[in-house]
Structure formats: C-alpha cells, structure tokens
Amino acid sequence: MKYNCELIRDLLPLYKDQACSSESVAAVEEHLSECPACTNILNEMKSCDETIDTPMIREKETVIADQARFFKRRGAIAGCIIGALFSIPVLICMLIDIVAGSGLSWSFIVLTAMCVPASLVVVPLLMKENKALWTLTAFTVSLLTLLGVCCLYSGGTWFFIAGTAVLFGLTLIFAPFAVHAKPVASRLGNNKGAAAIGAITLTFLLMMICIGLFSRANGFAAYTIAYALPVFVYMWGMYALIRLPKWNGYLKAASCILFSALVYFFSDTFALLVLGYGLRFPTFGFSFGDMLSANDSTNWLVLIIGTALAAIFAVIGFTKITKAPTDRRNTK
To answer: How many domains does the chain have?
Structure first.
C-alpha cells in the first residue's frame, strides 16, 4: 500500500465530512480500495453518526412542530379576543336601538363596518394556511356587504355602481398576487397572467355595465360600451405583446410603448365611430385654445413621443440581436 494506515485514519473524519482537499480524497480512496480494516473503521464512523444524528433530527422536528402548534393556538386565541372586542360597538348600538325603539338599523351598519377591520386583523390570526388569500377574500366580501347594508338602509340605488367599482379596483391591484397564491397557482399552471387579465376584464366589464344600466344620464350605456372596448383591446394587447413574442426586453418595450400610443391616439376615433358620429381623426396641431383642440393636441403629442421612444428602444433591441451572434463567434 502506498500510504500507511495511521495517516489515512487521521484523514478519515475529514474525508467523511467532505472537508479535505482533492489530493487527500484521492489518497484516502486509493488506500480504502486496498485496506479492508480502514474501510470498516469508516463504516463504523458513519453508522455512529447516524445513531447520534437521527434522534437529534427527530427532536428538532418535534420541537418545531410543538412551537408551531403553540403559536397557532396563541394566534387563534388572540383572534377570538380581538373579534370579541370588535363586537362591543355592535352590542352597544343594539342596546341603544332597542332602548330608543328605532329597530336595529344602525346595529347592522356597525356590524358590517366592524367586519371590515376584523377581516384584516382576525382572519390572518385564525387561518393556518394561505393567510393573504383568505384575508383578501374576507376583506372584499365584508366591504361589499357594508356598501350593500348602507345602500339598503339609506334607500339608495347606488350599490351596484359603487360595489362593482370597488370590486374592479381591488381586482386591478390584487389579481396579480391572488393568482400566485398556492391553491390558485396549482390549478392555473402557466395561465396565471391570462387569469389575472381575465379577472380584471370581467370586473371592468361588470362595472361599466352597471354604470350604463343604473346611471340616470340618457344614452350613457352607449358611452360606456364605446369607451370600454378600447380598454379591453389595450389590456389584452399588452398581455399578448409581453407574453407571446420571443423578443428581447428592448423590443418588447418598444412594441408596448408604440401600442399604448396608438390605442390612446385612436380611442376617441373609435368611440365616436361607435356612437354614430362618423370617422374623425384628431386634427394635427398644437393649439390648446379649447377642449377639443387641446384633446387633439394631446393625442398627437402622445403619438409622436411614443413613436420616438419606441424607435429608440427598437434600435437598441435590434443592436443587441446583431451583436449577440458576433459575441458568440468571438468567444469560440
């Protein structure tokens, strides 16, 4: 044998923990292939470590599980206590309504109002998993319920307009986060972006329909359709440009900027055409003397600036594409 056993046995602890140099590893392995005695010593060292490590790992897992149950229990208790505190104003209003003989109208309003902060404080403490998703759902339901109760007791007809507007606003902000929640993401797979855009589109359409149906202005429904369609085109067009083309970031930025400028420029033209006013393009000029000329001037400014920015990003993007093959050839 090339190496003596005493030297190799001094290296065995480092070899077992993978803490020695490559030369030492080669020397140990060469010796072990020829020495059964040192091989048995190495096996005994490994079995001894397993005997010690296994109970320690189990104990660590037990401690972590016990602590998790402890904090969950404390969170549930804290949630129940906070929920009880939120119920105090409701009970006070119920007693006042009963004593005054005015029914329980204000009690229901206060009850639903207390559900809004409770959804943000109590729900995260009570839920074991997916706290953000459950909190968002509870907050949305409680807020819409509050609007519905206020509308009911005020005798108004504004709930559908306000409720759908709130729902659209929340969806616009939180839909990208909701689709990445574990139970939702597992079902959507690679369709998270389309699902978020679909949810935003649906709530926007619902809001515009309710505005058109419940608005008292004559012909307002036609205006909602005329100005809603360009928004749909813009949302899905941006999604397609970002998701579908296999371009680099600069070319995608150029296409998105140009598409945004074009949609903004032609939105009024499309709306007027749908409303039956004929085909009218913004008049070229930079006069801000009245509202119509100011609107046309703004449209042209957006189109010119957007086209210029898109051209700059496109040039950079094509430069990156042409340089990439050259760089690869040079590296070869």
So the answer is: 2
